[in-house]
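pasting for the record
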Amino acid sequence: MLILRRKIDMTDVANLRIDGVTDNFQVRWDNTLIVTAYDQEQTFILTVDGEQLILRRRLRDVLARFARENSIHSHEMHALYKLVGCRTRGYVAGHYRLVPTCGRTNDQVIYYMVHCLDNAAELVDDKRVEMLLKGKNETYHVQVDTSYRTFRRIVEAADQVAKIQLQIYEYCRYQYGKVNSRNVQERPYESDYCVIQAHQRRSEEVLLATILYIVNAAYEETFGEEISPEFAERIKRVINSF
């Protein structure tokens, strides 16, 4: 079967062909490949069907709605990304990942679905990255203005965040008895005691980091400064006493 590949240069969004303008498109994990600002008030979207749409909403509003509808909370993402040592955060839900090509405050930032990514390579001549994104019937060559090093760093961080989430999921399955009880020998390695204990510790780390982030945000909003390291340690001691 012949796989068609359309080239889309995202470094020149203003001159891309537009198939339609809408007020109602809902960005989901399964219907979108690319999301980026078209101008200050509108958002460009490449769908899995290959449609190039303009949504009459600001990018930040589109992303906020997407996060809200998929229960992706900023305090949880902050905690998870802090654990993996990356400040460039995406929207991660296990195997589903919507990540930026660069810092979120950069005017040229483009968000793309990593779970639709087939391959990527650096364009040596101009230091850009070309991604192969799989749609329903086509594979798209999408060129973005970022370095391959930055691209890899952001994707690897999202992978690490997803790994932690899936470890917590595995621990929760174990915690609530969701294991294969017919034959103990059939239980996967991920259900072994030591692995489950490691996943439990990861779950507790994320919970602690999330609570500290929320408390610090509320404290800073109220008193105009961050909590002290001593107060943070006191919070940790209270949490660990339960």
